[in-house]
Amino acid sequence: EAQVTQNPRYLITVTGKKLTVTCSQNMNHEYMSWYRQDPGLGLRQIYYSMNVEATDKGDVPEGYKVSRKEKRNFPLILESPSPNQTSLYFCASSSRGLGAYEQYFGPGTRLTVT
Amino acid sequence: GQSLEQPSEVTAVEGAIVQINCTYQTSGFYGLSWYQQHDGGAPTFLSYNALDGLEETGRFSSFLSRSDSYGYLLLQELQMKDSASYFCAVRPPTLSSGSARQLTFGSGTQLTVLP
User: Fold this and answer.
1) pLDDT tens digits, B62-108
2) Strand, coil or helix: what is A101?
3) What are phi and psi of A63, to 5 degrees?
4) Residue B2 confidence (pLDDT)
5) Interchain CB distance below 8 Å, B43 and A50
6) How far is residue A38's CA from residue A36's CA, in Å, rounded to a whole number?
């Protein structure tokens, strides 16, 4: 089954404690992205990756890091989480070209930073 | 920067037709997509318009006018299960660095379908 998986689905942590949210896709997609979703603000892109070892900042990259060492995985790293990073996070993947318009989303990770 | 405007809420009754508009406040973009998101769920792709005009997929249709930087999603024969948030998304122009940009999403329209 074609899918994007994220772990963990729910996470409560404290300010400053480094964490990683994993994302994996089994569709051999080139493009992968991370979004955060906050009430009234829609989906805002954090980082995206065009392929292995090729990443770029989205609209709200501050406080986040990513890496793309393998095509299927695109982890999101919060080195020192702060309460303003409490949000719902989605990973997404898509193929190149026109296929980039059809993104496949993971189930989401609800993060709370206290 | 880029921004997309959508109505925040729309309410309609079962069996009705509803139109959700989306306007894009910048020049130049590559196509308009629509996504559906139920409460607590992941966004799912509905449709994509690369060219001006109407695209139909079952009960859902999507329209794009590049000259007006405007599009809409049309939902016909509304069902209770259509109650969800609907997002339009555009792919902004390529960055000056040459990097391709991924999708920019609107803030979403909450559709409530009443019995």
Assistant:
1) 999 988 888 999 999 999 999 999 999 987 666 555 455 667 889 99
2) helix
3) 90, 0
4) 58
5) no
6) 7
User: Which among B43, B44, B100 has CB closest to A43?
Assistant: B43
- In this complex, the residue of A33, A56, A105 whose CB is nearest that of residue B99 is A56
Burial class (CB in 10 A: 0-12, 13-18, 19+), A57: middle
Cα-based angle A45, B73, A88 (whole degrees, multiple of 5) = 30
Amino acid type, A20: T
- A30-46 pLDDT, tens digit each: 999 999 999 888 899 99
Interchain CB contact of B46 with A (< 8 Å): no
Strand partners, B23: B5, B70
Question: Do A90 and B91 lie within an 8 Å CB cutoff?
Answer: no
Interface test with A, best of B102, B104, B105, B107 (most A CBs within 10 A): B102
